[in-house]
Amino acid sequence: MLRITRSIVPNSLTLANLFSGFIAIIYVSQDKFIFAALFILLAAIFDMIDGLTARLVQSASEFGVQLDSLSDVVSFGVVPSFMLYKIYFYQYGDFGLLISGLPLICGVLRLARFNVQTNAFQDKIFFTGLAIPSAAFFIVSYLIFYHTNNLLPEKVREITIFAVTIIASLSMVSTIKFYNAPRPNKRYIKQYPFVTVFFLVALVLAIVSKGLSIFPFFIVYIFGSILRHYFLKYSHKLRIYAKIFSKS
User: Would the CA dihedral through 53, 121, 182, 139 be positive or negative?
Assistant: First the structure.
């Protein structure tokens, strides 16, 4: 007999994420890339609220964590890689398959590392490595708003699509700390005012620009996180060396 538990609500939302990713794959195969992008967005909404729901009804479980990762592989790994191949990399044959598959491969590695190295039930301020939904939005926002619309010269697009693919892939498997989305509570806003304002401004600009600002936002987000990571790393080393020399 089927047992009904509280986890059925968040797990159903996770499966809705998975099914949205499946529909996106169908649309990519039909060259309907805007519809595919909309279902990636829908998958991201389900991905966001399933965790919130699990914590709300106190039904977080290891099963839910694994189910979430498997769903993310499809919606934010398979779909962007397939879209990259269909839009541009198909012309490079086997090499194109390899390049377009990098976001999927690195996304799977990132999720596997996340599941075994961290407490998946904890509400995190930082992620180690770019989150796979963020990488998907970085790739898809470029493809939809800049590549397929020919907003950039052809030579620039040829370079940019390679750069976006590689940057997204390497960012996911890196050890760089990336801020998670802000929490809508006074404690978080007081502790991280700059991050809160940054994300709110990005959201408003995305709506006003009808999506055009999403890709530039992710450029600032990714490279800002990289600069922050290395600034903190080397400033810490400099402080250690300064203490050593001051004692000598």
Answer: negative
In this prediction, residue 5 carries a pLDDT of: 63
- Other CB atoms within 10 A of residue 196 CB: 17
pTM for the full predicted model:
0.88
Q: Which CATH architecture has domain 8-174?
A: Up-down Bundle (1.20)
Helices (H), 74-131: 79-87, 93-117
* Dihedral pair phi/psi, residue 49, rounded to 5°: -85, -15
SS percent in the chain: helix, strand, coil, step 5: 80, 0, 20
**Residue 160's closest CA among 211, 98, 218, 82?**
218
DSSP notation for 191-244: H-HHHHHHHHHHHHHHHHTTTTTHHHHHHHHHHHHHHHHHHHHHHHHHHHHHHH
pLDDT at 218 over 90: yes
The full set of domain ranges for the chain reads 8-174
Task: For 192-208, write each residue's pLDDT tens digit.
Answer: 788 888 888 998 999 99
Residue 47 near residue 68 (C-beta atoms within 8 A)? yes
